[in-house]
Specification:
16% of the residues lie in helices and 50% in strands. It is an alpha+beta fold.
């Protein structure tokens, strides 16, 4: 017996609303801001956050207006920086992506938990999508 697609979608919506942990598991990235402060005598601010990346996801190609540095707490990911060979970054390792360089990250079956730091010019977004 075939079930209507609408019924399946409604059932999925009810299940997601009833089980918030299930909804959280489907998010590819959970970001938690930890600290934000102005860099004295400059027009920059520093943003530090925790990023929890779900298993088997691509973050998506993007850039940052300032450098991004990070430290992997758990799991790992493949860092894909334009113009460079892909690099596997594992727990206990750090990375640096220069300002305005297009990059992406792809997690494996364990996902990743990362502390990331961004140096951002005042008034600029932390990141922007790239083609």
């Amino acid at each position: 017996m075939k079930r209507p697609k609408r019924l399946i979608c409604i059932s999925a919506a009810i299940l997601t609303a009833a089980c918030p942990t299930l909804a959280q598991q489907t998010e590819p990235i959970k970001r938690t801001p930890l600290q934000r402060f102005e860099v004295p005598q400059t027009s920059y601010e520093t943003i530090i956050g925790l990023a929890e990346l779900a298993p088997d996801v691509n973050v998506g190609r993007h850039t940052h207006p300032g450098p991004e540095s990070g430290y992997v707490i758990e799991g790992g990911f493949e860092l894909l920086v334009d113009g460079e060979a892909p690099r596997q970054i594992s727990a206990g390792e750090s990375y640096l992506v220069p300002a305005m360089i297009v990059h992406d990250a792809k997690t494996g079956p364990n996902g990743a938990k990362v502390i990331a730091t961004y140096l951002v010019p005042d008034g600029k977004p932390t990141s922007s999508p790239a083609n």
